[in-house]
Structure formats: structure tokens, C-alpha cells
Design a protein that fits this description.
It contains nine helices and nine strands. With 278 residues, the chain is α/β, with parallel strands linked by helices. The strands form two sheets. A seven-stranded parallel beta sheet has the order 3-2-1-4-5-6-9, sandwiched between helices. A two-stranded parallel ribbon has the order 7-8. β1, α1 and β2 form a beta-alpha-beta unit.
Length: 278
């Protein structure tokens, strides 16, 4: 069986997914760029990508996308699990319905795609699965319990899966970027329960909104561009022996160390001053 070079990237309508698809197709790889709404992918099609509809939370959509790539290439050579979004808000105010949606997109859909591509990868004794994690899977920012739980889940998933499939010639890589300057932040802000003036978390949510706006405005140091992450994804895919993990940016590299050095009490005190609750 000829080894497939085809790359399937999820969540390509913007941000990391779009930048990754462009970087990979620019290197001559056959790239399948996917999104829930394929009409958002016209610029990627113009750049040479094959575009395909894929809703990672829908089983029929998942199977159809994988089978389409396999029909042309024999197998998915590389799966880049990028699709995801951030649910922001205090634990008490995030509904279970919202939490389930967060896990459906960021975890369960991702796991199912891994299950669907693995038979083809095993058959050709080669393949790469790249999971886009986050620094939020290493250190939990304020009001990000839902999102951080999903990214902590990818830490466990990637560690287990890497050991299970390496004897079949399949590599598993976890990318851990810090905050990225993209529509992702704006989407996350839209998920936060409304800022009120009377509720118990009113001050907290107002301070959180100010902190997000302050730290993600243009020119602020430490915020990554999507292209920074795309370059690392490309490096991992092209490496003969990729690292299990790639931490990108100061947030991912330094904050876990700061968290460990400070301990719980000092860390909580620092976070409390960053985003006061009352």
C-alpha cells in the first residue's frame, strides 16, 4: 500500500486551522481543509487546498469526510485536530448544556476522528495525528474551567494514544500554544454569560472582559499569531521523529513553571489580583 501524504485539517475557517492549511499546501502537500461551513474556505480552495464540509460533532459528517479522503488517497496520512472553541464563564453560571457542547466539539469529536483514521494509518504502517491543545491545558486561567477541562483532556488522550499506536508506525503530537491572536478570542467572549450589574459575579465578569481586551489588543507582547503555530505544526509533521509535545510562546513555556514555583496559595493570590471577583 502506498503511503498517503494527504493531510486533513479541521476547523479551517479562521485562525490556526486556516494558517496551517495554507502553510502545508504551500509545501506541496495534498491538504484537505475542512469546516462546518465550507463556503468560508473559498480562499483556501484558491490556494490549492481541497475543501470539505466537516462538523466534528456529527457522526455522518465525520464518516463522510474521512471516507472522501480515503477514497482518493487510500488513507488519511496526517490528521490535524484543530477544531474547537472556548467557553468562558464562572462554573456556577456555565450551563451543563454549554459544557456538553464544549466537550462534544473539543474532545469527543476529536477522539472519534482519531478512531476513524487509525485503521487506514495502521494498514499503511504510517500516519501522524496532531492534536491542538493549549497552555490552558497546563495552567487554568480565570473563568476558563470548561475550556481548560477539554484541553487537560487532550493531555491525557495524547499520552495514552501515543503509546498505543507507535508500534503501528503512527505518531501522536500535542501542540500547546499560548494565547493566539485570532477570531478565537472574540468567539470565546461571546460564550460568556451576560455581564450584569446585580449578579454575584458581575464584578468578576466585568474585570475579566477588561483583562481580555487589554491583553489581546494589537502589539501586546506574548500573544501569538496563528502563523506561529502553523510553522510548528508543519515542523512536527515533517520531522522524522517529532517531539511528543511542542510548547509555543511564553505562556506555555513559562507559566507552568511559575505555577509550580509559587504553589497554590501564592498562585491564587496572583490570579485574584489579576481578575478581582469582588
Amino acid at each position: 500500500m502506498q503511503t498517503s501524504r494527504a493531510v486533513l485539517v479541521t476547523g479551517c475557517s479562521s485562525g490556526i486551522g486556516k494558517a496551517t492549511a495554507l502553510a502545508l499546501v504551500g509545501r506541496g502537500l495534498p491538504v484537505w481543509a475542512s469546516a462546518r461551513r465550507p463556503e468560508t474556505l473559498d480562499d483556501l480552495a484558491a490556494a490549492g487546498c481541497q475543501v470539505i464540509q466537516l462538523d466534528v460533532t456529527d457522526e455522518e459528517s465525520r464518516i463522510r469526510a474521512i471516507r472522501t479522503v480515503e477514497a482518493k488517497h487510500g488513507a488519511v496520512g496526517t490528521l490535524v485536530n484543530n477544531a474547537g472553541y472556548s467557553q468562558i464563564g464562572p462554573v456556577e453560571e456555565v450551563s451543563l448544556e454549554s459544557l456538553r457542547r464544549q466537550f462534544d466539539t473539543n474532545v469527543f469529536g476529536l477522539v472519534r476522528l482519531c478512531q476513524l483514521v487509525l485503521p487506514g494509518m495502521r494498514a499503511q504502517s504510517h500516519g501522524t495525528i496532531v492534536n491542538i491543545g493549549s497552555a490552558a491545558g497546563l495552567v487554568t486561567p480565570p473563568a476558563s474551567s470548561a475550556y481548560s477541562m477539554t484541553k487537560y483532556s487532550l493531555e491525557a488522550l495524547s499520552d495514552a494514544l501515543r503509546l498505543e499506536v507507535r508500534s503501528f508506525g503512527v505518531r501522536v503530537v500535542l501542540i500547546e500554544p499560548g494565547a493566539v491572536r485570532s477570531q478565537f478570542i472574540a468567539t470565546g467572549q461571546k460564550t460568556m454569560p451576560g455581564i450584569d450589574t446585580e449578579g454575584p459575579y458581575a464584578i468578576f465578569k466585568a474585570n475579566l472582559a477588561k483583562m481580555i481586551e487589554r491583553t489581546h489588543r494589537p502589539g501586546v507582547r506574548g500573544i501569538l499569531d496563528a502563523e506561529d503555530v502553523a510553522k510548528v505544526v508543519m515542523t512536527a509533521i515533517n520531522a522524522r521523529h517529532p517531539k511528543p509535545r511542542y510548547r509555543i510562546g511564553s505562556q506555555a513555556r513559562l507559566m507552568p513553571q511559575v505555577r509550580r514555583i509559587l504553589g497554590d496559595r501564592l498562585w491564587d493570590s496572583m490570579m485574584g489580583r489579576l481578575v478581582p471577583v469582588r
